[in-house]
Amino acid sequence: GNDFFGDCTRNAEKYIHPSDLxxxxxxxxxxxxxxxxxxxxxxxxxxxxxxxxxxSYMRQVEIMCKDGKHIVCCLENVDxxxxxxxxxxxxxxxxxxxxxxDELTGVKNSNAFKELTDQLDKKIASGSEDVKFGIIMCxxxxxxxxxxxxxxxxxxEAIQATSRLICKMFHHSPVFRVGGDAFIxxx
Length: 187
What we know:
- This protein has helices spanning 4-15, 21-27, 30-40, 79-98, 110-126, 143-150, 152-169; strands at 42-51, 54-64, 71-77, 108-109, 135-138, 175-177, 183-186.
- By secondary structure, the chain is of the alpha+beta class.
- The termini are far apart.
- The strands form 2 sheets. Strands 4-6-7-5 form a 4-stranded mixed beta sheet.
């Protein structure tokens, strides 16, 4: 058209997701686009568009023609690709959380405790901070006897009850299950 940049800017609110609008408007600024294309010859932007009330991810590629005067604009629906990436990211975050949680009690596990001790060690070694903390270690007396006489399900219930009690007592501090019946609280 006669005024590609003006038309895009005027109509952007109608078809660009509000969260992506500022980024798209910056892209449709003539000077910005020409500068980017002059440097790289092409560039890509991904944003969410709205059409018929449906939100879809779009990839827009701008390419400077060899004559240096014309721009080719390519638009591709990449909704399925972006949704898959979002799902993968959620799964990864979930797996990372699970890797730091004890399955039986829901408190943090020995992996999370190791990460915390590594962080504390770095703070102490740097000497830049006054690091103050306390450590409380707890365990269940005679858990083996409980498991042997009442069964492992009862032992698991004892571990869960102990975990709840420790969490209630130290509700402002992280609680870690670091072994069968061993818990650590970092104050």
